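Hello K.,

You asked for the raw outputs rather than the summary table, so here they are, unedited. I folded two proteins back to back in the same session to keep the settings identical. This is the first:
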Amino acid sequence: MKKILLFGLFVSILSLQDLRAQSATNKPVLNHIALYVVDLKKSTFFYQQIIGLDTIPEPFHDGKHTWFSIGIKSHLHLIQGAAVATEHPKNSHLCFSVGSVDLFIPSLKKNNIEYENWGGEKNAVTTRVDGVKQIYFKDPDGYWVEINDAKE
């Protein structure tokens, strides 16, 4: 009888642990960000060649999608179909961290992409109060992109 009670207690404890584990894994995590673009080839070139993202397989195979890896189990989806590029506020931006902002800037210059600091000063870098360097520029569809050298 003791063995049955101990077994029952053991099963109950395991069930509680399973419930806790489910609760912990039910916390939302970023899966993807989707951007609606005018010219998929131009935008794909930008994120692949300028930003340096790696493409990943996309399930549609319809010529209207490009997917990129942007972190562990996180993706950037480009979807063709926007009629025109639109203006977006700088406060709404994508941010990618690199080892060195200073080493990233020549790639922008080589491709004639203007960049600015947070205040809008052309060809200038912002240094945050925590020492992180930042620059901002627009992708082909007018979405703002930040590049910084944050180590986190």
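The second followed immediately with the same parameters:
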Amino acid sequence: MKLYHCKDARSLRALWTLEEMGLDYELVNMEFPPRLTQPGYLDINSMGTVPTLVDGTVTLTESSAMCQYLAEKYGPTELGLDVSDPQYGEYLNWLYRSDATLTFPQTLVLRYTRLEPEERRVPQVVADYTQWYYSRLRSVEMALEGRDYLLGDRFTVADIAVGYAVFLGVSLGLDEKYKPNTTAYLARLMARPAFQRARAK
């Protein structure tokens, strides 16, 4: 199994999951953006995006899907829920909300504050999508009331997926307006040995 990774990119979700599960894998560290810095990468992932996970004949390019795939293929594991579990629907909803709802607005903030040349940066886009992110983050704050994790006292790949989105906000300076439950949640996640190992790779 091989994971193509850029430091602190969405590939951290898959890398963190691999570390939590203790699976064997090969890590290919790349400079961002890999479509420009990694020769031959477009032959592996035609979109040129990161991450890419190759497991035998299976190739995945969506980080939250990787989390679910690893938990289901290489389980059973406490990180994943079976379809018969009463919280399965809630679990899946968080897993996919992590990227479509919580990471997406931050990618626009990142693009228009750091990645685009100065003359192409658009402060209004940054302001609008920063507010979008905060408004969506309220669901996390509310879900964590009286809970350590999104599903209560059990840590799952949904926490890895959402936790990455919350962690990304730190690099963008968005954590200054995090509410107490979200701040405490992020601290718990970042204290996990598997998270620390993944970040050190």
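The mean pLDDT is 97.

Happy to rerun anything if the numbers look odd on your end.

Regards,
P.
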